[in-house]
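#help-structures
NK: newbie question, is this the right format to request a structure? protein is Gamma-glutamyl phosphate reductase
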Amino acid sequence: MNCVSWREAAVAASRKLNLVSGEAKDSLLLKLADETEKNMASILEANDLDLQKMDKSSPLYDRLQLSEKRLKDIASDIRKVASLPSPLDRLIESRTLPNGLYLEKRSVPFGVIGIIYEARPNVSFDVFSLCFKSGNVCVLKGGSDAYNSNAAIVGLIKRVLTENGLDPDFVHLMPAGRESTAELMDAVGYVDLIIPRGGAGLISYVRDHSRVPVIETGAGVVQAYFDESGDLEKGKAIILNAKTRRVSVCNALDTLLVHEKRLHDLADLCAPLAGKNVHIEADPKSLTFLTGHYPAGLLHHADEHTFGKEFMDYRMGLRTVSSIGEAIDHISRYGSKHSECIISEDKEAQNKFLREVDAACVYVNAPTSFTDGGQFGMGAEIGISTQKLHARGPMALPELTSYKWLIRGNGQVRS
């Protein structure tokens, strides 16, 4: 596929992909997993070229960095995708009309899917495995920060496809630069769907400028609410995991909301965060209860920029609320409809939170770090949708299909 004809080649490849059996797809993915493990050294060498150009203090550094362990985990995810049932040709519904026409609604691929993403080379593997299994050609537009890594990964995928008698145009990597991003977003009639993965700025840009339909994913402004009835030990573990497991990912905690009747427990609740050097930007009430009980160098006044911010760093907002209703109001105002959590032993409060919070994933007594396709049993994920059309939450194989109606008749005509 070259820069002049990639659109036409992608459409032609999507027709060819329709003819590849499920068994052949699974076999190819298993071979790709094996080759990924065999070629770790060359992938890591390319990744190191990208890492050398990025400041280690950048929140994106962790996302960009590959390692032998991460590549082995990626290979494991590819094998998991291969083991999952095919999402294609599923009978969604069927019926016979009074005139004798027989209708079936069956799942089909979108065709060609474009992915625009930032410095996360693991996405290249995830997207290909999910798109290939679901019968979609993928056109990848990664960030320039990860171009060497992505080129090595896509080169490996193309080689494995070619060696197994399949079309290497089932995957295409766009050149670095904004010009190719614009070209992808303008490919009406060739690309069926675009999925952006990255920060709020990237997602907003793609949504506002793409002429191709877009599913919004990724941007996560995430809150946890510690209720009046919250269990302290559960709360400590949940908040620590949600905030510090991986601070650069979209399901990481950004703001902790605490019921005012539990402020006396605030120092204990936040103590594990100090061990991870988490900076806390606190409102006046919570600041009073933490002063002298949390490292002074890590404690700051909240300002107008604290809430509604996706930190992607060892930094967190903290706000006192007087009721669960005020907590839900805060989430409604500042959240991004990604993932939200309540820590509570009150069933009525739990149910109110589950019912009234408008987000793709709403948790009771569990950290938002579980918002992940792999954790949900989907294998890998292509992104986490924060919108309500077509798909919501972690997106994997079923979400990469559309459907069509198949109608069988015997000479009927419409009056």
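mod (FA): yep, format's fine, and the tokens are attached above. The CA atoms of residues 140 and 173 lie 5 Å apart.
NK: thank you!
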